[in-house]
Amino acid sequence: MPLSSLVLAAGAGLTGGLAVARDPGTGRARAMFADHVAGEPGLLGAWAVVRARLDGHREWLCIPVAVLLAVLGESVLPLLAGALTLPLTRRWIRRRALRRCRERAADAVTALCADLVGELRAGREPGQALLLVGRGQGALGTAEAAVLAAARFGGDVPGALRKASTAPGLEGLAGMAACWKVAVDGGAGLATGLARIEHAFRAERRGREELRAQLAGAWSTVVVLALLPMVGLGLGAAMGADPLRVLLHTPGGLACLVAGSLMEGAGLFWATRIVRTGETV
């Protein structure tokens, strides 16, 4: 088999592996065994260390692939494509990281509500309970010191919570602030209000997870669309057609490459937008 077909097949496999790596179930399994693998001597431990260092710079994987295609195709066009793909990939990775941070912050707010309800029902005062459960959880964000100071010295706890709720993922603190203010001003039960807020947060979380499970098939379609061009190039190389030479060194091939790239990008953008719209409904 020619070297170009082997490289194209490897590229298709790498792309498929990266697509599978984005699956939430894979991420949860990796997180469960992260400590065990990191402590293993030999190849497993070394691979865990290398992977941890590469996690923050995954977008640079575009460059080796572009260099390989440029060498095989004897053209600078793959290098230009890699340079254009790099910022787009970095933006996509950062958006995914920000979304995960927002979800972790929202989960921390839910856990804070549950812990507060438990402490209040155990007989603690609201300020005391907040001081006990609010430290170091991450649910109060950068305003943790201000919120805890207000709780300790009898300050404006609802105002501090509202200010903390402006951070991404911590919007639920605004509901806590309203519940706290009603309980202080009107004498309503704070534990009851926080329990209702917690149930609402957990229901929203369950709805979001169910929606993602239903959209898993749509995401699989998007991944297949992304892999089809690589599969086609691999089949062409396996048949001896030398698709890289045709695409990079002939006028008709260049026209097909530009038109196909534009249609592929438009199709992926459209499919991704449809799925994202379904996630936000």
Automatic annotation (TrEMBL):
Alphabetic keyword roster: Cell membrane, Membrane, Transmembrane, Transmembrane helix
Keyword Membrane: yes
Membrane topology of this protein: Multi-pass membrane protein
Localization in the cell: Cell membrane
Transmembrane segments: 63-86, 215-240, 252-271
Residue ranges annotated for the Type II secretion system protein GspF domain, each copy included: 113-234
Superkingdom per UniProt: Bacteria
Stored InterPro entries: T2SS_GspF_dom
PANTHER family: CONSERVED TRANSMEMBRANE PROTEIN-RELATED (PTHR35007:SF4), INTEGRAL MEMBRANE PROTEIN-RELATED (PTHR35007)
The protein, known as: Type II secretion system F family protein
Source organism: Streptomyces halstedii
